[in-house]
Amino acid sequence: MQPENVYPRRAAEGDDASALIGKTLGSFRIVERIGAGGMASVFKAYQPTLDRYVAVKVLPAYHAREPVFIKRFEQEARSVAKLAHPNIVQIHDFGETDGITYIVMEYVDGGTLKDRLKKPMSVQEAADFIIQAAEGLDCAHRNGIVHRDVKPANMLLRRDGHLLLSDFGIAKILEGTTNLTRVGTGIGTPQYMSPEQGTGQAVDRRSDIYSLGIVFFHCLTGRVPFVAENPLSITLKHVNEPLPVEQLLATGVPPQIVHVVAKMAAKQPADRFQTAEALIEALVNALAASNLSVSRHWRIGTPIQYDLAGNIPRVSGSLPPTSSPQLPPDAPITCFRCEALNPRTRHFCTYCGYKLADNDVIHDRYTDHTGRAPLARLTIQSGAMAGRSFRFHQDVITTIGRTNGCDLIIAGPSVSRRHARLWFADGRWILADLGSSNGTFVNNMRLTHPVVLNDGDRINFGDEVVVFSITYL
Q: Which residues bind ATP per the record (predicted)?
């Protein structure tokens, strides 16, 4: 295999980042250093309050003295934290302690796609990773974020092969032009950089698609398409030399797949796929035309997807409805939402008012690695309703408050009339405060924007305590 060209980085110069091992940043105890890049060092850390490991990205000391780099670092945290998608690394927190600026992220223990590139992959394995990455990019692009450094080292893998995009440290929000935006021009990795980015031109989501095409080429052949002795020469090859598709054909890649790679890596942005969604559709069709199976559940049928504001869903797939087993004529009906038993003569639950003819199960289209649909369960821990538990389907935006008209009524005096909203988006459950008087807190942190919930999270609606968990039918 041809190694990826690696050029000297400044990350370790004059920065004794390893001295942080054993120390604490905020509530996170640094365990070991697990990576370094041009913008930051990355550590594995332990969070005692939630009994979990996280990844902490620390800004080098020489960057911390430069306001522009600090702004870029904080922009990464704020912009990516708003993205809720199973193929994007989740941002938990960010802050500053004793002059050290850091971001706390989801810890992924399966290495990177770069680690897997010891030899060429099968077409199916490579396509699997590329579609997952494209799903994550599609979410970012829809939220106005261009990654600008798509490469195998920024694609983290869980042990089951689930891919998550990381390191949006040089991403920019496509709103206006600022000094911060201009400083980012041209930053990236030459082996995967689009012609327009390499020559300092403005970039958009099609630049990410180009870079992902080069990653696809690397996965299929075991090498990047353009190599040279220095970054400038590599950039010139991206601009001037045609993609060596003969290398793809020589390894037995079907022509339909070669066409997709070539279109992804077209020199002119207008000649590429214009969206990640269009790329995914073309690649899935090319796999089918090549008589290659597509095993991932989200390509068989994907969920109704709400955006981060809980707006009207975009349906991108469907699954046939499932049939329910026949019950004896006199058997009571169990309410899906609160699991109370009801006479069969009732149409709505006598306890929570939910419709007993529960047809929403057919909309639970997203399934996780277990092959089952993850639903939400809220278990109330305080007040008169303590011990009661409520479940929620994926297609319903749930309003939580203390008055009639809310989907879940919590009758505590500190709960606002319309307090919070819960919904499902891109494989994750999202919670947002609705401007409540006493606040919504997740693990003692007050919500200022929508957040992704994790199994076991403790939620406070004012003074009322609720535990969130993932459940299955």
A: 57
